[in-house]
Amino acid sequence: MTPAEIDLFYSRLKAAMPNPKSELEYVNPYTLLVAVVLSAQATDAGVNKATRPLFAEIRDPAAMVALGEERLREAIKTIGLYKNKARNVIELSRLLVERFAGEVPHDRAALEALPGVGRKTANVVLNVAFGEPTIAVDTHCFRVANRTGIAPGKTPAEVEDKLMAATPLSYRHDAHHWLILHGRYVCKAKKPDCPRCVVRDLCAYPDKTPG
Fold it and tell me: What percent of the chain has pLDDT over 90?
């Protein structure tokens, strides 16, 4: 896409979704971090179902450590990979207490040093909790970037780099929310809803669904 087409692409997504937000439920930066760690290879809806009662009681790392791994496992057992995720959440909570006085650090390197926290998770926390213009590339964002041609790449890291370079700063804070939500509800994996797509004429995907 040309810079003018990219600007138009984002302006249309913005018009369709003026205030995009993460669909994960959270009450503070810590619960956001936990929710994003739990969301790996799981749906936001599935994570929310498990964390709603959990976050009603547990809202800080000290409380999570006190809850313990066994009870956390029980609370999140409906989420895929729950045993490994429970272990990571307890350990990252312990480290937050020990190293950061129970606060979530506003620092990429410190976040990525925590168990279960990769670049995508750090990007979400930096963006949603701290307002940074980062772009988190999940499976939906990756698919939309490649299908439309706005930022094609073979890996999430390559797509992220291209999106960061191509996305105007004025759109960057909300960019990954627009791309994720567009991929989740319109540019779906098996059958994209091209007739309902607001950027259809800008999209390079050759197999658009008719309508």
Answer: 96
Q: Is 85 a catalytic residue?
A: no
Instruction: For the chain, list the domains and their CATH numbers.
Output: 3-20+135-202 (1.10.1670.10), 29-128 (1.10.340.30)
- Tell me whether residue 208 is one of the annotated catalytic residues: no
Q: Are 43 and 35 in contact (CB under 8 A)?
A: no
Which of 7, 85, 107, 138 is flagged as catalytic? 138
Rounded to the nearest 5 degrees, what angle is found at the Cα of 167, between the Cα atoms of 161 and 173? 95
Per-residue model confidence as pLDDT tens digits over 128-147: 999 999 999 999 999 999 99
Write down the catalytic residue from 120, 162, 201, 207: 120
